[in-house]
Automatic annotation (TrEMBL):
Molecular function terms from GO: ATP binding; kinase activity; magnesium ion binding; potassium ion binding; pyruvate kinase activity
Family membership noted in the UniProt record: Belongs to the pyruvate kinase family.
InterPro entries according to UniProt: Pyr_Knase, Pyrv/PenolPyrv_kinase-like_dom, Pyrv_kinase-like_dom_sf, Pyrv_Knase-like_insert_dom_sf, Pyrv_Knase_brl, Pyrv_Knase_insert_dom_sf
One matching Pfam family: PK
Enzyme Commission number(s) from the entry: 2.7.1.40
Keywords: ATP-binding, Glycolysis, Kinase, Magnesium, Metal-binding, Nucleotide-binding, Pyruvate, Transferase
Enzyme class: transferase
UniProt domain Pyruvate kinase barrel: residue ranges: 130-218, 359-573
Organism: Saccharicrinis carchari
Name assigned to this protein: pyruvate kinase
UniProt pathway annotation: Carbohydrate degradation; glycolysis; pyruvate from D-glyceraldehyde 3-phosphate: step 5/5
Length: 616
């Protein structure tokens, strides 16, 4: 085939795509007509993009590249403009008359401006030298400590996320007041983003264990203490300012007032072993103590205070401790019973000879899923760390055979996620709690994260509740399931009735629900669809997680953070080292911005390239 024939073939293919795009405009005119006026061209472009993707264009793209023509590789945000441009070039090269492009076709520059405007409204102010925003999930300490919020804002937090699955309105309003106070002081616009909990499927409560508190120091291979146990000592209603405590010891407020730095607290633990705690420092309404030996404390244990500068001893007792959290240890081929009713879970039971007399059992928080699951379907627990298959479906319970766990067994506790990736669950995205929380969220949030969005009707249900609220917050739809991914275009066209709108790629549940081998391409497709609708995306779940929790990132986490720059916003979860993590992520995103905008690669100047040297 000669060059002219190839060009004519390309021209026919481009024409067919344009015809299909116009047809789809008519087919979905009702949905397009319902979107917010600001989204009218964006909705049209989304439909054009889906028309383009309904063709197998890999061969077309290769032919275009070989002829030195635009390959449509990054055409998501301006599909019709790109198609018409290629058509014009091909017609000119074939000596054919060129038709004038129709008015209103969205240009590359216009599409970029639309996305940037939508990003500003949804995720807050643009940080200096960084266009990718940072969203941080706030821990409870944010309600008590204004300086904590203020430091995060100064370090680069653009959006503060409050998860309504945790805490309560009295805590949320304190967080919000601190955000507003920091915004005023720093002259920034950190957005308040509130997560509706949604119908999260989790394991039910475990049967309470004994009221025992266990803690131990860290030791090296020779047994020497490298890090003593860090203990928070305070009245029962005073919680630690962060999550670095190895244990929390409730004591009487009168004793706490007498405790000074350098004092020691002596006690005999539940095993009859003598031990002591060295008081390290005061913080807020509590004290930090250090213990160099393992201990088992129980409610009512006698505490004897030895003061540094005085003789004599002050006595008190350990306050009411929470029951020790039980867990189920599961190994491959074990059987786990999952109850429909809220029966407290228990580990497997054995007789004195080690013979199994009762299988481990636990309940789930959404009993309605029992109507939808079937034998032979997979079930994952605890973010996919434990895998199983439904062996049998019995009256009010499921028999699950464990197919994957750690070699020495994996622990399953109450409140851990459950996923049924093979099952078609008929679960609505808005719960009774969500509707109740909307009274608060609608009044205070700049943006609402809508959980477990599977279909357009879930958004419609939200819009119905939202209709009663005068000031409409922005909306981010969280895509957590295969159905949510599959129905994303229709979900977005429905959500675009309000403004602004965003997408959250909830990578934890989504990876489990869609399968690890499929997740990379699914994540990519979600961002492409967002680009086509000029809707910003949030890259969420496990970003720099090891660093947030332990202070040191893994190599793969750094690579992941680099890739996150392609999204408009990156979400961090809470952790003891969250401030350090925000600072590192800010640096990574600023540095990577020099190398490209989304998928458009830049080539920053290499200062010593002419000397055969590379530079940063």
């Amino acid at each position: 085939m000669n060059r002219q024939d190839k060009l004519r073939q390309i021209g026919h293919q481009i024409r067919d795509i344009i015809v299909k795009a116009r047809e789809m405009e008519n087919i979905y005119s009702d949905l397009i007509g319902r979107v917010h006026p600001i989204y009218s061209k964006s909705a049209l472009n989304l439909v054009h993009y889906l028309a383009l993707r309904s063709f197998d264009i890999e061969k077309l793209q290769t032919q275009l590249r070989y002829l030195g023509l635009p390959g449509m590789d990054n055409a998501e945000a301006h599909v019709m403009s790109s198609l018409l441009s290629v058509q014009t070039i091909v017609r000119l090269m074939c000596g054919m008359p060129v038709a004038q492009n129709p008015a209103g076709t969205i240009s590359i520059k216009k599409s970029e401006n639309l996305l940037k405007t939508n990003t500003n409204l949804l995720f807050g102010y643009k940080s200096t030298n960084r266009w990718t925003r940072i969203m941080v999930t706030l821990p409870t300490i944010a309600a008590r400590d204004y300086t904590f919020i203020n430091r995060l804002v100064k370090l680069g937090m653009n959006s503060a996320r409050i998860n309504c699955a945790h805490d309560h309105p009295a805590v949320w309003i304190q967080m919000i007041n601190h955000i507003k106070q920091s915004n005023k002081a720093s002259k920034k616009n950190c957005k308040i983003v509130m997560d509706l909990a949604g119908p999260k499927l989790r394991t039910g409560a475990m049967k309470p264990g004994p009221q025992i508190l266990r803690f131990k120091p860290e030791r090296d291979l020779s047994g020497k203490v490298t890090k003593p146990a860090k203990l928070w000592i305070a009245p029962p209603d005073v919680f630690p300012p962060d999550d670095t405590a190895d244990a929390i010891i409730p004591v009487d407020a009168r004793l706490l007032k007498k405790i000074k730095r350098g004092d020691t607290i002596h006690f005999t633990d539940a095993r009859g072993k003598k031990n002591q705690i060295l008081i390290d420092r005061k913080q807020g309404e509590g004290k930090w103590g250090l213990c160099h030996y393992s201990a088992y404390l129980k409610t009512g244990t006698e505490l004897k205070l030895n003061k540094v500068k005085q003789t004599g001893r002050e006595k008190s007792f350990v306050g009411e401790l929470l029951a020790l959290e039980q867990f189920i240890l599961l190994c491959k081929n074990d059987l786990l019973i999952v109850h429909k009713e809220p029966i407290p879970g228990e580990p497997a039971k054995y007789d004195r000879k080690g013979k199994l007399i009762a299988h481990a059992h636990i309940s789930c928080t959404l009993p309605e899923v029992f109507d939808d699951v079937k034998p032979g379907e997979a079930v994952f627990f605890n973010d996919g760390k434990i895998e199983g298959v439904i062996e049998a479906k019995e009256e009010g319970r499921l028999r699950v055979k464990i197919t994957h766990a750690k070699k020495m067994g994996s622990k399953l506790r109450g409140g851990k996620g459950i996923n049924f990736p093979d099952s078609h669950l008929n679960i609505n995205g808005l719960t009774a709690k969500d509707k109740e929380d909307m009274n608060f969220v609608g009044q205070w949030a700049d943006v609402v994260n809508l959980s477990f969005v599977n279909q357009a009707s879930d958004v419609e249900a939200y819009l119905t509740v939202l209709g009663k609220i005068k000031e409409k917050p922005g909306l981010i739809v969280k895509i957590e399931t295969f159905n949510g991914f599959r129905n994303l275009p229709e979900i977005l066209l429905c959500a675009m009735q309000i403004y602004p709108v965003g997408i959250m790629i909830a990578r934890g549940d989504l990876a489990i629900e869609t399968g690890w081998k499929n997740f990379a391409s699914i994540q990519e497709e979600i961002m492409r669809v967002g680009d086509a609708a000029h809707i910003p995306a949030v890259w969420a779940t496990q970003v720099l997680e090891s660093m947030a929790k332990n202070g040191v990132p893994t190599r793969s986490e750094i690579t992941d953070a680099v890739l996150a720059q392609r999204a408009e916003c990156v979400m961090l979860n809470k952790g003891a080292y969250i401030e350090k993590t925000v600072n590192v992520l800010d640096s990574i995103l600023k540095k990577m911005q020099k190398h490209g905008y989304k998928k458009q690669m830049h080539l920053p100047k290499l200062e010593e390239a002419d000397r055969l040297k590379l530079s940063l």
